[in-house]
Amino acid sequence: MNRLIVVTGTQREAAVLGPKEITVIAGGGDAEGLRTRLRAAAPGAMGIVSFGFAGALADGLGIGDWVIGARVSGAIAADCDPLWSAALRRQLPQARTGTVYADGRLIANVAEKRSLGARHAALCADMESHIAAEVAAERALPFAITRCISDEISRALPPAIAVAMRPDGSVDGRAMALSLATRPGQYADFARAIRGFLRAMACLREGAQRLALPATLRPDG
Question: What is the pLDDT of residues 193-218, one digit of tens each?
Answer without folding.
Answer: 999 999 999 999 999 988 888 877 87
